[in-house]
Specification:
Layout: H1 13-66, H2 79-89, E1 106-111, E2 116-121, E3 125-128, E4 152-158, E5 169-179, H3 184-187, E6 206-210, E7 213-223, E8 228-238, E9 241-251, H4 265-277, E10 280-281, E11 290-294, E12 303-307
Antiparallel strand pairs: 1-2, 1-11, 2-10, 3-4, 4-5, 5-9, 6-7, 7-8, 8-9, 11-12
């Protein structure tokens, strides 16, 4: 309750003091309250401002956490690009070294004049023309075994002289002859036949199958004090001609001494019969040309060296 003082009225001393103190106290308290209130409102306003700013700054963070943006999907690298890089890093290809061609073990003999062709081992030697008659190491020429004259030697294939070292082997031959003056019936016979029968009578010729050909076959055996020779004869009638193939072997004879072994005769004749099994007879040409075919010599796998045949 406020006391109102009128002008001109005197105040009692004690009353005046109390009222003054009371008025002063009230007046001072009201000013402090105002300051406090102002300060409080100021602090409250500042707090609101700070709080608002904090909420605004935190809001984007909450949004980014609750709704993360999906990560972009990168396309896979193309395979072709990887292959191209690998190709560029591959060292240049080195050409392979050329392997020398291996010479075949067998050589082809072909005589256009007689139509005869066959295979024989490369290490064997070939004699054609006038020297084609086989000579069995000092025993003498191997005679033709036709029943009528008119035979012509075509070629002879000889085994190497050192084919069987340490044995009594002297020589071995494969010989081809032809006789165009005899018939097919005469071709099935021989001028002389095998006489090694125990009772001394000749052994009749036998029919044999050699390769794809049917032939007649007989044998002959000759010997002296130094040498001995054995020949197997085969006849075949083709192209109106009688073809004779003789397989011959000679040895050192019965006087062989020391550490020299006797040759396996069956082994030698087996080699010669392999040559006979490859024989083919084609229609003869008019020009007398004999050829020995070497499959390596000419680059294409077939080269020939020609020798003239005896007509």
């Amino acid at each position: 309750m406020t006391t109102t003082w009128k002008s001109g009225e005197k105040k009692p001393n004690n009353q005046s003091t109390n009222n003054t103190i009371s008025g002063t106290t009230l007046s001072s308290w009201s000013q402090q309250q105002k300051l406090a209130m102002i300060a409080g409102f100021a602090m409250l306003g500042l707090s609101l401002v700070v709080c608002a700013c904090s909420k605004q700054s935190a809001k984007p963070a909450l949004v980014s956490v609750s709704s993360p943006a999906p990560a972009p999907t990168l396309p896979a690298p193309p395979i072709a690009a990887t292959s191209t890089i690998a190709d560029t890093q591959t060292p240049p290809h080195k050409p392979a070294r050329k392997t020398p061609k291996k010479r075949p073990a067998d050589v082809t003999y072909s005589d256009a004049n007689s139509g005869v062709s066959f295979l024989y081992p490369r290490k064997f030697s070939v004699i054609s023309g006038d020297s084609a008659q086989a000579d069995l190491a000092a025993v003498g020429d191997v005679p033709m075994n036709f029943v009528q004259p008119g035979g012509v030697a075509i070629t002879t294939v000889a085994l190497p002289a050192n084919a069987y070292p340490g044995t009594d082997f002297a020589s071995g031959f494969f010989n081809v002859s032809v006789n165009r003056a005899i018939s097919q019936q005469e071709c099935s016979h021989f001028a002389f036949v095998d006489t090694r029968n125990a009772d001394g009578e000749p052994v009749d010729a036998e029919k044999v199958k050699i390769g794809d050909s049917d032939m007649e076959m007989t044998s002959d055996f000759t010997a002296n004090a130094i040498k001995q020779a054995e020949t197997h004869y085969y006849h075949n009638y083709v192209n109106s001609s009688c073809y004779e193939y003789s397989l011959s072997l000679s040895t050192e004879g019965f006087t062989t001494e020391g550490n020299v072994k006797h040759i396996n005769r069956d082994e030698v004749f087996a080699k010669l019969e392999k040559i006979l099994a490859t024989v083919k007879v084609n229609p003869a040409q008019t020009e007398p040309v004999a050829q020995v075919v070497d499959p390596i010599a000419a680059g294409t796998g077939a080269a020939t060296s020609s020798t003239s045949g005896k007509k």
